[in-house]
Amino acid sequence: MRNASNNEIKLLRKLARKKYRENEQRFVVEGERAVEQVLENGLVEVETVFVVEGKAASDEWSAFSASIEADVLDEVADTENPQGILAVCKMPDEISANELREQSGIIVAIDAIQDPGNMGTILRTAAWFGAKALIAGKGSVDVYHPKVVRSTAGATGSIPVLSGELEEIFTELEANGWQILLLDGGPESINLRSVQPAKKTIIVVGNEGNGISESLLHSKRKKVRIESAPGQDKVESLNAAIAVSIALWGLQ
C-alpha cells in the first residue's frame, strides 16, 4: 500500500468545505462500515481509500488505498472516531428537470432542510420507497456534507439529485403533468389519506422551523397534512424526515 501524497492530503482538507466539494466534484465517506457499503453498492465511484498507518487494507480496496498518518486522519475527519479509514468518492452527475419531465413516479423535494441528520434520513427513505429523484432547494444542507453522508447509512448516490430554485423547477415539471403535494399541518390542508396517488407526484417538505416557503404555496398546489391520533394535543408537529417517510408510505 502506497503512502498518501501531499496533494491528496491537501484535497482531504479542502473537502471539509462545500465550495471545494463542488469545485472538485468529490466528497468524503468516513468509517469502515460506511466505506464498505459504498464499495458494495457501487452507486458512487470510490477514488481512493485512506487507511491509517498500521491498519491492514481489505483486499477489496487494497488496489486503490493509501496509508495516512493517524494525526493527519484525525485532522481531516469530521468525526471524533473515524475508525482509521475514510474514502474520497466522485459525485454522481446531477439529474436535470428536463430528464425528470417525462418520467413518472414520486419525487421528494426539500425546501431549506438544514439538519444533516434529516437530510440523510430523507435520502435513505426516498431510496427505500423508490423515489425517482430528490430535489434540493436553495438553503438546504449540502447532500454531500459529511454528516449527511453518514446519515444515509451507505445510501448516498442511490437516487438522482437535482439542486436549484424550487419554483423554477416546479413550474417546468407542472407543465408536464407533475402534481405537487405540500406537506403542511395547517387547517386548510387536506388529509393525506384522502389524496389519490397520481402517476407523477412531488412531495414537498419545508424547513424544520419555518415550514414551506410562502412563495411555493400556490392555490393550484395541494396542501396535505398527516393526521394525528384523535385528541392528541401534546405534540405540535412531526419531524421533517418522519413526515416524508409517512407520506411516501401513504402514497404507495
UniProtKB/TrEMBL annotation:
- Which Gene3D superfamilies does the record associate with it? 3.30.1330.30, 3.40.1280.10
- The RNA 2-O ribose methyltransferase substrate binding domain is annotated at 28-95
Name one molecular function that GO assigns to this entry.
RNA binding
Recite the UniProt keywords alphabetically. Answer: Methyltransferase, Transferase
Is Transferase included in the keywords of this UniProt record?
Answer: yes
Q: Could you tell me the superkingdom of the organism this chain comes from?
A: Bacteria
* Keyword rRNA-binding (UniProt): no
What is a single cellular component term in the Gene Ontology annotation?
A: cytoplasm
User: Which residue stretches, if any, does this entry annotate as coiled coil?
Assistant: none
| Family of the protein in this entry | Belongs to the class IV-like SAM-binding methyltransferase superfamily. RNA methyltransferase TrmH family.
The protein here is known as RNA methyltransferase
UniProt source species:
Gracilimonas sediminicola
Taxonomy of origin reads:
Bacteria, Pseudomonadati, Balneolota, Balneolia, Balneolales
